Amino acid sequence: MAKNPLKITEVVLRDAHQSLLATRMKLEHMLPIAAAIDEVGYWSVEMWGGATFDSCIRFLNEDPWDRVRQLKKVMPKTPFQMLLRGQNLVGYRHYADDLVEKFVDLSCDAGIDVFRIFDALNDLRNIKTSVDRVVKNGKHAQGTISYTVSPVHNTQMFVEMAKRIEDMGCHSVCVKDMAGLLAPYPAAELIGKIKATVKIPVHLHTHTTSGYALMSITKAIEAGVDIIDCAISPMAMGTSHSPTETIVAALAGTDRDTGIDLDKLIPVAEYFMSVRDEYSAFLSAFTGVDVNILKSQIPGGMLSNLESQLKQQNAYDKLPAVMEELPRTRKDMGYPPLVTPTSQIVGTQAVLNVLMGERFKVMSKEAKDVIAGKYGKVPGTIDPALIAKVCGDEKPITCRPADLLAPEWKGLQKEVKDKHGIEKEEDVIIFALFPQVAEKYIANRGKPPLEVFKTPASAPAPVAAPAAAPETNHFKVTVNGKNYDVTIDPLAAGASAHAAHAPHTASDGSATPLNSPLSGAIWSVEVAVGQQVNEGDTVVIIEAMKMENPVAAIRSGVIKSIAVTKGSSVQAGDELLTIG
Description:
Blueprint: E1 7-10, H1 12-20, H2 31-38, E2 44-49, H3 52-60, H4 64-74, E3 80-84, H5 97-110, E4 114-117, H6 128-136, E5 140-146, H7 155-167, E6 172-177, H8 184-197, E7 202-206, H9 213-222, E8 227-230, H10 244-251, H11 262-278, H12 293-296, H13 300-312, H14 319-332, H15 342-355, H16 365-371, H17 384-391, H18 409-420, H19 425-433, H20 435-444, E9 453-454, E10 473-479, E11 482-488, H21 490-500, E12 512-515, E13 520-525, E14 532-533, E15 538-544, E16 547-552, E17 557-562, E18 569-570, E19 575-579
């Protein structure tokens, strides 16, 4: 028995497939191997939070709460871990304290044992409510440092954060190196100094994107790190994590021997080798090592999602330009660490800067909120020109953003019950976090996803999945010898077709078409036919790349016609409305 065994958190059920497969792994591909994972002896298995909640309802038609319960039935021994974005929960804005507390309570009831709680800006004011509620529920609260490299970040700052996290009452502290920027010798210094400063266990999370990870983990182990994150080998490397088997084998017979039997990992690896192939449509093109990541500082999950989003915009060829733009955008926005939601916000803004042909010509609502201080205190200094553009003569807020939010849980419960007849608290939370997709999700929950997946012969049927409803058409298609499940939703297809073939008003001097700059869904239409607008006024808001993106009037005049409605799908170039 090792004197000081290194503990392992397995991330294959969350961050590994978020990093490599755009978070598309379905529950049906987790359940067959869950019992074997439970026998390994991991310190924890990360299987929830991050983008998994969003992906379940946006793409997979799965109940994210039920995912926890179903897995818990076959994995009773291993603690379940989730990634929680502090005051952002698993969404993209700050929520009131009462909603945060309710989410934590329901997550504990569902079966989450370890909460890795972070704030994208490292503003620890934004994790206190979550930490306190986890502790009150008797679960493990892990306070988190979002590691990054910039002119305004340094080792001493992170060590001081670790001490504040301990003083807050957390049970452990995690160094979350989401982009693989932690180099080996800085890792030894950082972990060593944190270990000398705090008494609680220290956990290291790092990605293999830059090629540093295995060396940095080795130096961190030498410095006394207590726990590390790993991914089973078929779902490791690239933008993901270091292979579990490699770490286990490397430490065998040493004072840091994990105590994990390599033979128990082999069937798990063999299983995920086949599962990974089923998601080839979503596999990140980045599978090796790229030292350019040390410049762009893009985390693994962000990179695969960025690729997916550019494809949705029919602009994948713009990826190199976006990669060049990202560091500039990040600097102008005050050097926020690139971790959800700021990675999504900064990444989307970089995409908009490239697609629009002018930097910050269009800004998402979320980017404006970061600049206005509504996400907390950024580490650096925001470009004064951006502050003036967003805030005008007012100053950005400096208090804890949630202090400005009124309680929202009770009002939300009433609103969802009155509008949708729904009282189940877990479903009410879904409406709170993702109001634009919640109604469609509830209607389609349990149906096959509206995406193409190869169905492996060895995989069981989806758990409790009902037959497709009459309004959908479900087909089994064979292409090049491979079997696929394909579901066509006529309602969704019709909305897209309507947008694509909306009546076009000729530009005869009396009416000018306003076309969509992005592909996405209509979040809201801000004007009505006959309304007078000025050039630059927001007339439509499009949800694209998970952000709210305002579309401005291109001229002053009167709204002559509107070709879209709330919730309808649009492609870049589709007509939204005309102005005369």
